[in-house]
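Researcher: Structure prediction, please.
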Amino acid sequence: MSASGDPFREVCTRRLCLRLPHPDDAVPLSELMGPEISARLASWPVRLAPEAAAARLGEARAAAMAGLALPMVITRRGSGEVMGWISASRAEADRNRAVLSYWLGDRFHGEGLMREAAPAALAAAFRHLGVGEARAAVQTDNLASRAVLRGLGMRPLGIGHIWCAARGREEQCEWWSVRRPMEAELVLAEHAEVDPAPG
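Model: Predicted structure follows.
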């Protein structure tokens, strides 16, 4: 447990730190959200008012405390600048499975940051939630996100659907999956100093 009482200690990579959200994150997260990011996500609306962001963060923290999810704000190591979000939540249909979602603000794209954050986040999620499998849904034309999933050792399961609360409809997606690795591999992944992907 961290010094703040969170059931999850901050995880840092070479350039980033991942931590549970706090109320102060509502404004910077709402300012980062925009049409191009929301269009790639199932549950984050294109316009996210600070009040709505604060409510979302409160729900996310409650889910973390209940062992149902591991929501993390992605920040820049050193400055603490909020850059994006990555979360793993237990699937309602199978509590031994987590669903991974993530995004970065537009100005942080193209630096390999998510490829740096995702392995540490996934390892932390496996350890915190104790699930045996993680899945992620991605739009088939989202090449950057597919590269992130490949980097996690995920493999495509095929075309399926996902409910997109942000748009109030079911949408087609490609589902990817990875099984929980051995404990020693989790320790290495969670504590690795990840090199940035070549840009």
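Model: The chain has one domain: 11-190.
Researcher: Thanks, that helps.
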